[in-house]
């Protein structure tokens, strides 16, 4: 059985998820204004849930919670263990930075190198840039709200509108996206506050990690093959677990599917607690702060935001998904498959077709027809979107692509 949408019986689990996330936000953020805005946003989401799905008591909820919480430490250990090989360069570079700090610290005492690195500025800069882009998208969705509703009424989303205005759905998607963005930042933020990185540590990390990654992927080492294999396998496994377990779906991943399938919702394809968990199990905080907050953070957000626009005719439009053969839209339109994000011509896409995903299906045919109607698109590109990939799992992508994937996924 797969969980793809919330029901009225999930109200209590959803409320627990939002409340837990609110506590984490309150602990991580030092700005009282941001904490108040975050709690107000969470209260708004709970009210929207009630308006859309209603609320009903389910006697299974305590059992789901108790079993899920009891098993959770094992899930975390499992995630950390399976990522261990991929994360080893990160750990190595962090150790090098700590040793460098230890060796040079006393001789550089009092200089700029020993001063605390101002990570808060990067946090605010990242949040401001991503939120500004998301707000621009929000304005276009609100301006075309009637169009948004009429397009979505052609899909399975017509069943989820309820009595709630389309503008509320759009606002829910926007708030979901902003809170998801925050979920990917607060784990590292807590770590930086506790570990107080110095300028010297930041510079060592900024130089060593990209250089080590570049060397690894260019030398086609055993390590790089291992990371690639793990990536193909684990990405789908993690996502499948998020939809097969009621605890994982309702508390961790579900927010990513409860809002309309628009660019507004996206930030790394995760729900709130899932985002926090992801940054911990992938040890994101060990990266250089600048690399994480600016390069990786902005790139990953941009790709994920634009790659989640499945309402043709509204900014940022669906051309990127069309040209990259990104079939994730089917997953947001009620199909469990494909479980892996991104273009179907990438080497890992056949893992989804092997699980039974057919690229030419009722959802993707609607998508291409709707793009043809509301955006200009080449007929050959539209047809290619529905064709099976020519690649196999064994195909190797370019070193550049591998590097990009590694930077945006680990
Ligand atoms: Zn999903
Ligand atoms: Zn998604």
Model description:
It is globular and about 65 Å long. The protein has 410 residues and is an all-alpha fold. It is built from 19 helices and no strands. It has one domain (8-409). Residues 392-396 and 406-410 have low confidence and may be disordered. Helix 4 packs antiparallel against helix 8, helix 5 (119-143) runs parallel beside helix 13 (289-306) and helix 10 packs across helix 12. Bound molecules: zinc ion (2 copies). One zinc ion binds at residues 256, 269, 308, 328, 332.
Which tags fit this structure?
globular; binds zinc ion; 19 helices; mainly alpha
Largest sheet: none
Which ligands, by name, code or SMILES, are bound?
zinc ion
Question: How many domains?
Answer: 1
Helical fraction: 55-70%
Order of helices and strands: HHHHHHHHHHHHHHHHHHH
Helix and strand content put the structural class at: mainly alpha
As residue ranges, the low-confidence spans are: 392-396, 406-410
User: Rg to the nearest angstrom?
Assistant: 22 Å
* Total beta strand runs: 0
**Termini Cα gap:** 29 Å
Total of DSSP H or I helical runs spanning 4+ residues? 19
- Net shape: globular
Beta-strand fraction estimate:
under 5%
Rounded mean pLDDT score: 88
Task: Produce a short descriptive summary.
The chain is an all-alpha fold.
List the helices and strands and how they pair.
Elements: H1 11-28, H2 32-53, H3 61-82, H4 84-104, H5 119-143, H6 145-152, H7 166-195, H8 199-218, H9 222-244, H10 246-253, H11 255-258, H12 272-281, H13 289-306, H14 319-324, H15 328-332, H16 350-354, H17 362-374, H18 379-385, H19 399-409
Helix pairs in contact: 1-2, 1-7, 1-10, 2-7, 4-8, 5-7, 5-13, 7-12, 8-19, 9-10, 10-12, 17-18
The structure holds zinc ion (2 copies).
